[in-house]
Structures are given as C-alpha cells and as structure tokens.
Amino acid sequence: EVQLVESGGGLVQAGGSLRLSCAAVGFTFDDYAIGWFRQGPGKEREGVSCIIINDGTTTYSDSVEGRFTISSDHAKNTVYLQMNNLQPEDTAVYYCTADPLGLCADFGSWGQGTQVTVIA
User: Could you report the per-residue pLDDT of 4-24, keeping only the tens digit for each?
Assistant: First the structure.
C-alpha cells in the first residue's frame, strides 16, 4: 500500500523558513514523481512543486519559484520542500502526492497534509 506521511509544518513569521518532509511508506519511490500541493483558506488546491525521482527534474509554480526548493533523499525514501522567505499568502495545508508513472501528471496517493501558517 502506498502511503505518504508529511511533517514539518508549523507557525512562522514572514521572511522565515520551514522544511517539509514527505516520507514514502510501503513502497520505493525511485520510479515515481512526488509532488507538493497546497490549499489555503477559502482557496482551491494548487500545485506547488514536483520532482521526478529517477532523473531529478524539478518544477515549481510561479508563486514559489526562487523561494522553495524540492529535493529527494533516496536513502530515506523521503522528499523535502525547503521553503524560504515565507509570506502570509503561503499559509495553507500542504500535501504531498505520488505519480507512479513518474511524470508529475497523474497523481494518485495523497498524504494527510501538514499545516503551514505564516504571520506578518
């Protein structure tokens, strides 16, 4: 069974940083793509970033480009989202998700989410 477990959310002041983790449990993610999405209060869910594990290709939304960095640790079967210069508009529940085709396109399993709150 594919399971994803997010952690690392919290409360931070504007300009601060957080690192989110997405641990893949029950499967080896080498052939997958792992994506991060977020849903802010009263907003639709939006894609934030994605990484194709086997070649390291990364993508970012315009709203986080240059501030967020996605990476993977094969030994720990974990994907990270380093978030710098956080702003109040980054406040959201952040979810990680897995694409078994490795394309950052066809996401299936989702984690439970981790709350990120940025105060001005």
Answer: 999 999 999 999 999 999 999
